[in-house]
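Trying the structure run again after the queue cleared.
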Amino acid sequence: MQHDDQLLIGEEKESLSERYFGLPTHKFLLASGIVLVVGIYMGFIFFGNNSLSVLLDLEEHQDYLSEDIERLKAENAALQKQYFELKELDADSQ
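Done. Tokens:
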């Protein structure tokens, strides 16, 4: 009976973190703080101004611009060819 009373008194003295997580309060708070800081950091990495999504969007835009450059080069070459052909016709008619 006395031993049971001592166990109950010992359990009442335990903090919630010791009872549920097995850690003293200061270690629980430290671990919680570390998890929070790492979570915020990961959020900035994935969703911030210098994030992975921004990088992927920029790479996609770069691919689009590269394709547009190639298309415009081909169009320019065709127009130059047409210009020089018209210039030759003008030179022949004079």
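Residues 2 and 9 are 11 Å apart (CA to CA). Worth checking whether this holds up in the mutant runs.
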